[in-house]
Request: fold
Amino acid sequence: PMSTPVGGDETQAPQSRFAGITAALRYPDIRTLFISTFANQFGQGTSHVIIGWLVLDMTGSALLVGAAFAVRSAPNLIVGLAAGPITDRYDRRILMKIAVIGLMLTALTLSGLVYFDVITISNLLCGVFFLGAFQAMYMTARQAYVYDIVGANRAISGLALIGLAQRISQLIGALLAGTTILHIGGSGPFLAMAIGYLIGLTCIFMLVEVGDSAPDRQETIVENLINYFKALRSNRLLLSLMISTAGAEILGFSHAVILPILALQVLDVGPEGLGLLTASRFVGATVGIAGLAIAGDVKRPGALLLTTMFFFGISQIVLGYAQTFWVAVTLVAIVNIMATMSDVLHQSLLQLSVSNEQRGRAMGSWIIGIGTAPIGQGEVGLLAGATDSKTALLINGASLAILALIMAALLPKLRKL
Reply:
């Protein structure tokens, strides 16, 4: 079946300022995927709160908080390498189903362990590892599937729209997680995650089309891997984008590790305050991604990416100097406007930098890039433990801003995209 939009000729550009959003929403499967993403990514926001809270409650160690987030991100390196070729080989919808089933079963298991008070730091970290592995598999397949449906011209708006569903859902999950921990206990958030995954899985079964932009030729997995490494050697833009994804992940996204430390040890606002700080991440993310979705076709996404990465770093430095809770909430939101714009632009540019048959591998490269997060999460936890949260944010923020300037100087092709 053909993945054509409903409601008009797709070559006729809408004139509304919401053209990017309305164009992507004209595809029925994008609407279904939006609902599915909203349901199953509730767990992402919830897990950011419950994992940090549980680790600090069980150990009191800032270093172990960083280690927990690192364990969650660690599977990306392995999964990203395998998931790209697999995503190019098999139906993206089947892979999404498998991944969400894995997420649901893992969340149910963790809920039971906490409820029966048999949770230990080792089995918590094991569960966190599997949450990270299945999430990486899901994201690789989902982002490639969005492009399959909307095509190259609407890739940024389509990815931003689905990302918007994810961030709004994460915001709700983070807000509810803090209150749930306070009034019900640690098992409640994990159970809520599992219910969300079940709803999202049901919607994935309702996706109808493969997509007009899905690859016509499917290589074997071995061919995929061989051609993937050839592309990394010959395609400097692809390699550069993978490196910049890693840089943003190590030096920027690792700020999430600092939030439990800010809430529980610096600002002393408890689990509800941690829920609000985490929720402010997703408020900022929602604002950033909504801006990209509304903008639709970005004329110079490469230049916008470099600018965004620079201010991503600067905003982290300012966050380190926050003296009050509500100032910190506001600054966390600003940091995550930049973070989310960087994320979506990386996803889009990676897929646009390769042939249609290699887009799954491009998303695999993105997963590998974000798979370097454990380096940043471990490093920022170590820095915060050895010095303080302000110093950790200052070092990472300044490094990210400098990286953006270096890339702008050395990669004119990316700057001019």
